[in-house]
Design brief:
This protein is α/β, with parallel strands linked by helices. It has one domain: Rossmann fold, CATH 3.40.50.2300. 40% of the residues lie in helices and 23% in strands. The chain is built from three helices and five strands; from the N terminus they run βαβαβββα. Strands 2-1-3 form a three-stranded parallel β-sheet. Strands 4-5 form a two-stranded antiparallel ribbon. A hairpin with a 2-residue loop joins strand 4 and strand 5. The protein is flat.
């Protein structure tokens, strides 16, 4: 249940959601996409998948569950911080 990321839309807001619960994913997707049609949501269900998505694109916002099947969501922070500094 993953949405593709389209980087070519002008003014698009790219959000990475790292969450394993299908119910939570659907609730978050519904709230976000109803609020703003410019939002593109990419879903990762595990920490490893979240790391892989961060290698593919740079989201404007990441919403990360703390407890994931393969680790703690907070473990995504160092790679995001390192990537941010390398782009500056």
């Amino acid at each position: 249940m993953s949405c593709s990321v389209t980087m070519s839309h002008e003014g698009a807001i790219h959000i990475l959601l790292v969450e394993e619960s299908p119910l939570h994913i659907e609730h978050i997707r519904n709230v976000l996409t109803v609020q703003d049609q410019r939002i593109t949501l990419t879903v990762a269900r595990t920490l490893a998948e979240g790391r892989a998505r961060l290698q593919e694109f740079r989201p404007n916002l990441a919403i990360v569950d703390i407890l994931l099947p393969d680790g703690r969501g907070i473990e995504l922070l160092p790679p995001v911080r390192e990537r941010r500094h390398s782009l500056s």
